[in-house]
Amino acid sequence: MILKKLYRTENIIKTTPDETLSSIMPYFNSSHDAAFVFDSESIDSKSGELLGVINPYYCLIKKSYPANTKARHCLIHPPKIDINTPLKKVARLMTESKIHYLPVFEQNGGGQKFIGIISARRILEGVKDADELRTPVGRFINRKRPLISLLENDYISRALTLFKKHGISKLIVLSEDLQIKGILSYFDLISFLTMPKERQGSMSREGNKVPLLHTHVKNFMKTKVLSLTQQDTLSDAAKLILKNKIGSVLIFDNQSNPIGIITTRDILSTFAGKHNFLKIDVVAKDLSAKSIDMVNQFLTIINKRFVKRHDVERAKVIVKEKHGSGVFEVIVSFVKRGSSPKVIKEEGKNLFKILKDLIKRSKNITSNK
C-alpha cells in the first residue's frame, strides 16, 4: 500500500488565523486531532497556502492556552508529507509529532502544493495485515508500568492528580465491586476545563470551575471498552480499532485481569520499526491460564534480550506438560546466522523456576561465537 492510495482531499477540518480555540475545539475527538489553518482569503481554494495546524496536545496539554486564544497565536508547523513518502516514514512522523493528521504536498514547479491530508486511521486501514503487526500484544505490554485505575464515584480532582503523578493519558474506571466500567481520557477533561465559562453548563456555578473538580468520574468516562487477550496480535488490535472507530484497546491476561492498553500510536510505532520483535515460534499445549501468563512473560524477556542481537535470527519455544504428571518440559532453540541452532532444555514441576533458569542459560549460550 502506498500513500497515493490513502491520502484524502475531503472532510478536512479547516480554520482561519482569527478563529479561537473555543470555536475549534468542538471538532476534535482526541488529543491527536488537527485543524489546518489557512488564510481567510484562500481557505476555500485548492491552492491555498497552509499556515500551520492547531493540535489539542500542544495547545491544551503542553502549553495550556486560554480558550479565547486565536489560532494564529498557537498554531504549530507539522511535518510536511510528500506524496511519495513511504508509509513507514509517515507513521514514524505521526508518532514523533503526536499528530495523527498530517498535510500532504506534491511538487509544484519550484515549490510544494497542499493536496490533502493523511490520517492515522487511513494508515491503519492500509497496513492492518502487514507482517510487522503479527506480533502478539502480550509481548508488547510493559508490565513494569501497570494500569492505573480509580472508582467511578471518585472525583475529577483525583483523576487529574493521577494523570499528573503517573504521566499517563488514560485511566481505567472501576465500579465499587472492582468491575471495569469504562476508560477516562485526559483529553476529555482538559478540553472541558478549558471551555469558556458560559459553556460549562450545569457543571459550573457562576463560571467557577471548582464544582467540576468535585464531579464524579462516571460523568466523563467512556463506557465503550473493547478488549483483546495477550495472544491476539497487533493486527487484531488495528482491525478492532478501525471497526469500532476508537483509539485504544484494553488487553487482558488469561485470568481475565487487565494488564495494559494498546493504542493507535503503539501500532503505528511498531509498523514504523520503533518497536522491534524477535521472531519466536511458540508451541504450548494444555497449559493453565497461570502457566500461559508465565510463558508470555518469559517470551517478553527473551525478546528484549535478543531483539538487538543481529546474529540471532529467530527462536523457537516448546512448552509441554508430560502426560498430566505435573512435570513440565521446556525446550528453547536459537537460530544464529552461519551456525547450527543452539538448543537448551529444562524440566521439572516448578515452571517459574524452569523459565528463570532458561533465561540465565540462554544468555550464556547465545554469547558463544
From TrEMBL:
CBS domain location: 71-133, 141-199, 221-280
InterPro entries (alphabetical): CBS_dom (IPR000644), CBS_dom_sf (IPR046342), Diverse_CBS-Domain (IPR051257)
Range of residues in the leader sequence: none
Record bears the keyword Plastid: no
Keyword terms of this UniProt record: CBS domain
Keyword NADP: no
Top-level taxon of the source organism: Bacteria
SUPFAM superfamilies: CBS-domain pair
UniProt protein name: CBS domain-containing protein
UniProt organism field: Candidatus Roizmanbacteria bacterium RIFCSPLOWO2_02_FULL_36_11
Species classification: Bacteria, Candidatus Roizmaniibacteriota
